[in-house]
Amino acid sequence: MDEETRLIRAGKPPKKLPKTVGPPIQRGSTVLLPNAEALYKEDLGYGRAGLVTQLTLADALSELEGAKAVQLYPSGLAAMTGAMLAVLKAGDEVLVADCVYKPTRRFCDTVLRRFGVLVRYYDPLLTPDTLLALATPATRMVVMESPGSLTFEVQDVSGIARAARARGILTLMDNTWGAGLLFKPLAHGVDISVQALTKYVGGHSDIFMGSAATSDPKIARKLEDGMHELGWSVAPEAAYDMLRGLRTLPTRLARHGSSSVQIANWLAAQPEVSRVLHPALPTDPGHPLWKRDYAGACGLFGFVLRPGSRKAVNAFLDALQLFGLGFSWGGFESLAIHCDPQLVRRTVKRDFGGPLIRLHIGLESPADLIADLRAGLDAYVAAGSSS
Length: 387
Ligand SMILES: *Cc1c(COP(=O)(O)O)cnc(C)c1O
What we know:
Number of helices: 13
Bound molecules: pyridoxal-5'-phosphate
Shape: globular
Structural class: alpha/beta
Strand content: 15-25%
Low-confidence stretches: none
Largest sheet: 7 strands, mixed
CATH class of the largest domain: Alpha Beta
Number of strands: 12
Radius of gyration: 23 Å
Distance between the termini: 84 Å
Strand order of the largest sheet: 1-7-6-5-4-2-3
Helix content: 25-40%
Mean pLDDT: 96
CATH superfamily of the largest domain: Type I PLP-dependent aspartate aminotransferase-like (Major domain)
CATH topology of the largest domain: Aspartate Aminotransferase, domain 2
Number of domains: 2
């Protein structure tokens, strides 16, 4: 054969792959099939749905979620939208927690509405019975996010799941706060457990991915079909990185959780702070449910400053040296944002009586983070807060 042909066929991989701690990163759109008969028979006929690396990650996440099947998506938002698109149809109605992640809400208000799905938002603090009393014969799904990732309401997830199932209504929960570890939605009766793996499983603020887990074979089939129909794909390198993050998830989360509780308690004692929104604190209204259902806390919580101007809030944030100002969370670094501008679209208006700040507590020393927050609070007072 000519050299150009020989080069295209050159380079035989070893017959046996050496065994490493992680799976191989298998790249491929084309999958070579053994014979003509297999062309239309093999399950893995094309690489878009994932090869060895993605399948290994999905299998490991099934272990984490206690699920029969896990579907991977290119982002956490795609996991929410993909799972909803896979099971909803025109004419259905969805009840969505008012505290839901803002881009999920945007999807509900644009795409779902455009395709004839009616979306209604409910107060996440409703009891299961009051919530299910809102359902109509068209209600197909209840969407939960607990704790709400800006306002930290804790929902009675098992109560809602039970009441919904009794009426033939599906439940889907965004469990990004629980990271699949602190809370197990499927064990509490939820039909579809979604998380933004981008946050704690990734853990380093540098990869996007989401998952939807289920133990119902019919739903698993729908999620898989939905992925094929929408044409999404997850890169093997990203799947590898995600699996690497998963190995240290319990160790990291224990540290995020203990530091966040320590810092939340410290904030509660500061004169500039009127309220701390952290379900692990006994004073938090969500504490009893959190204590009943959760194995621990993560690094994400909120607090309310005594009333002050926007200028004073900005002075607080700008004085922080260790907390980055940025969205997202779940990485090794601490982050802070001002939440109020994100709350204006909500149906249920809650008056916190002062500016709401959200912190993500990273893996730095809690004493250093406390010193940083103290300097921020000093700047808040100096900039003319009323405290
Ligand atoms: C970040 C986040 C998402 C979306 O995840 P991406 O990977 O950024 O798309 C979904 N839900 C919650 C609660 C989040 O915090």
